[in-house]
Design a protein that fits this description.
The protein has helices at 35-45, 76-82, 114-124, 139-150, 153-200, and strands at residues 2-10, 13-19, 61-68, 91-98, 103-107, 110-112. The protein is elongated and about 95 Å long. The chain contains five helices and six strands, in the order ββαβαβββααα. 44% of the residues lie in helices and 20% in strands. With 204 residues, it is an alpha+beta fold. A hairpin with a 2-residue loop joins strand 5 and strand 6. The longest helix is centred in the C-terminal third of the chain and has 48 residues, at 153-200. Belongs to the RecN family. One of its GO terms (biological process) is DNA recombination. May be involved in recombinational repair of damaged DNA.
Length: 204
């Protein structure tokens, strides 16, 4: 659930904090009231393409922070673990848009790539528009939808954790095997060096 949206220096918005409660939230207003600006700012926090034009005139940078409370069984937690990001009660997605066009992305105050931010955003939010692609036609989301329909989200999360543990164990095993191979090569070199020294028969 989206719990809070904070916007700083985006287009015409100097400072805005919106808190959302459980249930349906509706933003209404006349044409030009700023609804699209809010949506563009929200999309920026979810990993949308940055644009220097989003920074408010006279500001060096704009910033958008979206605070979510996804719950312990939410599939987004698996993505967090896969990217070595601690899972907490609240999930903070923050995007900084600089006036020179560059952007910076953060998840729970940890720097991440825009690609990671976008992947998390896709798990948390669907923004529907007249010409936007919907998750239903995205094959990457089909398994999550089936798991949710069957009530298997917790089981899927358990399997994902087990798979991550297996992957970590395999990486650790590969590291140890590489260390053993290095030690064997060093031992062979040392034995060869000792044999050469014996052949030279050095005397004190």
């Amino acid at each position: 659930m989206l719990a809070r949206l904070s916007i700083r220096d985006i287009v015409l918005i100097d400072r805005l904090d919106l808190d959302f409660g459980p249930g349906l939230a509706v933003l209404t207003g006349e044409t030009g009231a700023g609804k699209s600006i809010l949506l563009d700012a929200f999309a920026l926090a979810l990993g949308a393409r940055g644009d220097a034009g989003l920074v408010r005139s006279g500001a060096e940078q704009g910033q958008v922070t979206a605070v979510f409370e996804p719950g312990a069984a939410h599939p987004v937690n698996d993505l967090l673990r896969a990217n070595d990001i601690p899972v907490e009660d609240q999930l903070l997605l923050r995007r900084v848009q600089l006036a020179d066009g560059r952007t910076r992305a953060f998840v729970n105050d940890q720097p991440v790539s825009v690609k990671v931010l976008q992947s998390l955003g896709e798990r948390l939010v669907e923004i529907h528009g007249q010409h936007d692609a919907r998750a239903l036609v995205d094959p990457a989301s089909h398994r999550d939808l089936l798991d949710a329909y069957a009530g298997l989200e917790r089981d899927a999360a358990d399997i994902a954790r087990l798979w991550a543990a297996r992957r970590e164990a395999a990486e650790a095993l590969a590291t140890q095997r590489a260390a053993v191979e290095r030690a064997q090569r060093e031992a062979d070199w040392l034995r060869h060096a000792v044999e050469e020294l014996r052949g030279l028969a050095p005397e004190p």
